[in-house]
Amino acid sequence: xxxxxxxxxxxxxxxxxxxxxxxxxxxxxxxxxxxxxxxxxxxxxxxxxxxxxxxxxxxxxxxxxxxxxxxxxxxxxxxxxxxxxxxxxxxxxxxxxxxxxxxxxxxxxxxxxxxxxxxxxxxxxxxx
Length: 128
Known about the structure:
By secondary structure, the protein is mainly alpha-helical. It has 4 helices and 3 strands.
């Protein structure tokens, strides 16, 4: 038996499945470098919508997840999802120290980023 004829397991004969986040990562790696985050996210969202027929909300979320994944490479801190809730995001440092960010903290950071021109506010739209 050669590698070409070896059974592929339970997925043998199945078509590859589309993964919007991996596609978004590829797009951002190829076309997003050097762009501001908001521009890269908008471009990636439009690409996913036009090429893969995703809804705007699904494409935007895939682009956001992909951007965060790339940004978090080589970081020694992480978001502790088990400790986070709808009211607080818990960031863990390399030593495991928890740093809480409440909704109020995050909104204040958003305002500061918008005031210094680091964040472009996009018109809100209904959840799809």
